[in-house]
Write a structure and sequence with these properties.
There is one protein chain. This protein is mainly α. 60% of the residues lie in helices and 0% in strands. It is elongated.
């Protein structure tokens, strides 16, 4: 790549001698893919059996443009005539799809799903998200450190991971 980029040769900017135009491949190849399309493609590639695929499709249909499922699973199960437990089982797999955190039902669940992707040992991170989200919102690191029995620097490091997730720097 370095050799390619350093090459002083530039293609001609004018015409090619006739009425020919340089093909702009962006105009030929571009398509608009929705989140729904992307998730359905992943579901088809995942290796679900027919029943799981049907449940995945139901769940994907309830995912909004922001990636959340805002309808309670019990309500989805009732309206789609399926078992809530079956939806919950398949939802765990959808949480592994791209973008990370898709299919979450709220911000907390979205962060928890992404935390499992980022860190191998998420015990402290999960504890922080489950028990100290309000303090995290206020950036009250001292209170979190005291409650968790941790050094404030460790808490700040965990919070940096969470903020990186929120800002989209991690997955």
């Amino acid at each position: 790549w370095e050799n390619y980029l350093d090459n002083p040769y530039k293609p001609p900017q004018g015409s090619l001698g006739g009425n020919e135009e340089i093909m702009n491949y962006e105009n030929v190849i571009t398509t608009q893919q929705t989140l729904h399309d992307h998730l359905m493609w992943q579901a088809r590639m995942y290796g679900f059996n027919d029943e799981e695929m049907s449940l995945a499709e139901i769940l994907i249909n309830y995912i909004d443009d922001d990636g959340y499922i805002l309808t309670p699973l019990e309500e989805i199960a009732q309206s789609e005539n399926v078992a809530t437990n079956d939806l919950e089982d398949v939802l765990k797999f959808i949480h592994e799809f791209d973008p990370a955190g898709v299919g979450a039902r709220n911000l907390k669940e979205c962060l928890l799903v992404q935390a499992h992707i980022v860190e191998e040992d998420t015990t402290d991170l999960v504890h922080l998200l489950n028990n100290h989200l309000k303090d995290l919102e206020k950036r009250n690191y001292e209170n979190i450190a005291k409650a968790m029995g941790r050094d404030i620097r460790e808490v700040v490091d965990m919070c940096k991971i969470i903020f990186a997730i929120l800002l989209g720097y991690i997955p």
